[in-house]
Amino acid sequence: MRRSKITGMGSYVPPRVVANIDLEKLMDTSDEWITQRTGIKTRHWASDDVGNSDLGLEASNIAIENAGIKKEDIDMIIYATISGDYDFPGTGCFLQAKMELPDIPIFDIKQQCTGFIYALSMADMYVRQGDFKNILIVGAELQSKALDKSTKGRDISVLFGDGAGAVVVSATDINDEKNDPYIYSTHLHTNGQFADKLCCPAPGTALGPERMSQTLIDKGLHFPVMHGKVVFVHAVKKMTETICECLSANNLKMEDIDMFFFHQANMRINDAVGEKLEIPAEKIFNTVQKYGNTTAATIPLGMHDAMKEGKLKEGMLVATAAFGGGFTWGSAIFRL
Ligand code: COA
């Protein structure tokens, strides 16, 4: 039976580490407030001369090497980001040029913090359908250039960081459904009624005569807007629900899963999900303390870290869930 499996992982974070106390110099905040409310201690910020696709390239090269293939074996790229190099074309085009891989199809997708799960679902479908053998998924974010780093933007700017994660999804023939490595299923959701609860209005065509103007800048509409408490409540509820949905679709129990990778927005969100689902803490891999929220990069970045630490190994059954702006949410289960 033709299925898809994850054959390689890679990640990259820019070298500059920004601690909570560094943010105290930019805005009225404190290490104590950030740590208590979110669990975040540090995040990485890229330098001025680095763009999103530079981060994506570093992660992609590692993932391709880790998959044991040549870059020429990649037959599609799916690039998940909300902080791309240019407004258009998609950042995947810039990555493709840097990788010197002409002619293969590229998608950019904008599903916020759920971007990786959506990309995984698309890659799985394209591989299963038969025409594609090795699809590169990249989740990369350069949020530090998109944040209001004054006190006005402190509720959001302390949360986000820069980084990239990549995986290679390859075709596989499975004979043993219980033990062979493959993607079991993916589950995707959106509720656009909450689109304005976590968004960045400008540049955009819904706001008047010009998609970008001094008026929009003066109103601060080029910075993200977030209703933190609404996001928090829905993130806990929807990530919990979608993990249950994913287990049920595969006739699995919580204890069958070896490792859980949740989106990393706030340690309190993940603690609440873990408690509701009664998951032992050692099965949940968190990175929010050191990277903050890296949006679409979060899950592949975390998985690669766990692999490097020896906590994520071949043969393990993995569940992953994410929640983000849109609102979007989703989950996946796969054996590595
Ligand atoms: N430093 C210091 N004070 C801050 C601050 C900061 N960085 N950001 C906000 N505050 C202040 C506010 O101005 C407000 O002050 P006021 O009470 O005097 O008006 C107060 O802190 C808000 O505190 P509280 O209501 O207790 O915040 P919270 O417990 O809701 O925590 C978040 C705020 C953002 C940490 C929390 O709502 C959250 O994590 N939400 C989910 C965010 C998320 O996951 N986003 C991404 C989803 S993919």
The largest pleated sheet is described as: 5 strands, mixed
Helix content: 25-40%
Q: What ligand species are in this complex?
A: coenzyme A
The class by helix and strand makeup works out as: alpha/beta
Main CATH class of the largest domain: Alpha Beta
Estimate nothing, just give the exact number of structural domains. 2
List the uncertain runs: none
Describe this structure in words.
With 336 residues, the chain is α/β, with parallel strands linked by helices. The chain folds into two domains: 2-173, 3-Layer(aba) Sandwich (Peroxisomal Thiolase, Chain A, domain 1); 182-335, Peroxisomal Thiolase, Chain A, domain 1 (3-Layer(aba) Sandwich). It contains eleven helices and 13 strands. The strands form four sheets. A five-stranded mixed β-sheet has the order 1-7-6-4-5, with helices on both faces. A four-stranded mixed β-sheet has the order 8-13-12-11, with helices on both faces. It has a two-stranded antiparallel sheet with strand order 2-3. Helix 4 (91-99) links the parallel strand 4 and strand 5. The radius of gyration is 19 Å and the shape is globular. The structure holds coenzyme A (COA).
Descriptive labels:
11 helices; Peroxisomal Thiolase, Chain A, domain 1; binds coenzyme A; 2 domains; 336 residues; alpha/beta
